[in-house]
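Give me structure tokens for this 412-residue protein.
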Amino acid sequence: MKMLANKILTFIIVVMLFCESAVGTRTKLFSANNVQDAASAFAPSPGDDGICATMVATQGYACEEHTVTTQDGYILSMQRIPAGKSGGLSGKRVPVLLQHGLLMDGITWLLLPPGQSLAFLLADNGYEVWIGNTRGTKYSLGHTSLSPDDPAYWEWSWDELVAYDLPATFEYVRDQTRQKIHYIGHSLGTLVALAAISKDLQLKNLRSAVLLSPIAYADQMSSPLARAVAENFIAEALYNADLRQFNLKRKAAVKVLKAVCQKPGVDCTHWLTAFTGKNCCLNSSIVDVLLDHEPQSTSTKNLVHMSQMIRDGTVAMFDYKDENMQHYGQPNPPVYSMTSIPDELPLFLSYGGADALSDIKDVKLLLKSLKNHDGDKLVLQYLDDYAHLDFVMGETAKQDVYDPLMAFLRLQ
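Here you go.
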């Protein structure tokens, strides 16, 4: 017990050191009354440090920066890779939308070399690739009236990603391509998709859904770090202390961590284990690449919502406790019913036995909800030694996950 208490205390101290409140040192962003003007103002230019310039064009692929504005005013960055390295006509290509997980951004799909990164592999295999970036991440900090310095900017949880971010990105890609979309999500990217599909929000735009490390039910989550946050109400404490932005990426801390990771005999893949489970297939050098770009900010309210899921064992909207009647007109938050997912929707689920965030027990609960799914529309893949990050950063993911994934897409 004493050891556990010390771990929790250490984590609280680390969080307090690394978190920034919404009133911070970030440069104040432009505000605009006109949504279209605001979108133009935030659109990355070819010469900046956007994802296209830094991560895609450097590998020899064409890339376009796009922005889409949600109904509640957030201006999201998207990247389009229209073709593979060898080129080819983009008009005949089926669109695929990639959506990252918690504390990450679209660079998730570009961290590995072109022959291993899913975004490049899809482009080289004939797909038109679109990469999403959720609100609050580095390239999606825009808003039509709010600055990230404003506490109100961070007043959201994954409910808003379901209600606003996902519909905006789906509809934008559909408008641009005039085709239905293959969706591929990892971690939080699977949760928002499952929730949206359960509400029939985006089925008209969806061709199929691929869920890597799927998260719906979370009360069996075995991650020591995630459980400590939830069971000790750490996110709630931060929120009540008026810390609205959760930011682990402070330059001084990252610099120190990178220096430690480069020392002989130090394998920094191990420090990820307490959060993600023991990843089988990460090259130790990938941690240095990861720290160049991640982790990204999220809202503290989002972490509160995730903590509620772990404690309560439900897939439900944010629990406002005594204010639920005011928000929902009922004493308990509405549930996202996983049994409402259409049986005929093509699904590909890939999960790992070592994953501490998408725990196998929670995945089995999800699969139980899908027990009536059409047999030829549900493909399940179980990898005994895979943990959470192996699905997007593992050296073996290409042959283990992406090749079967693309075989699935070709059948839809």
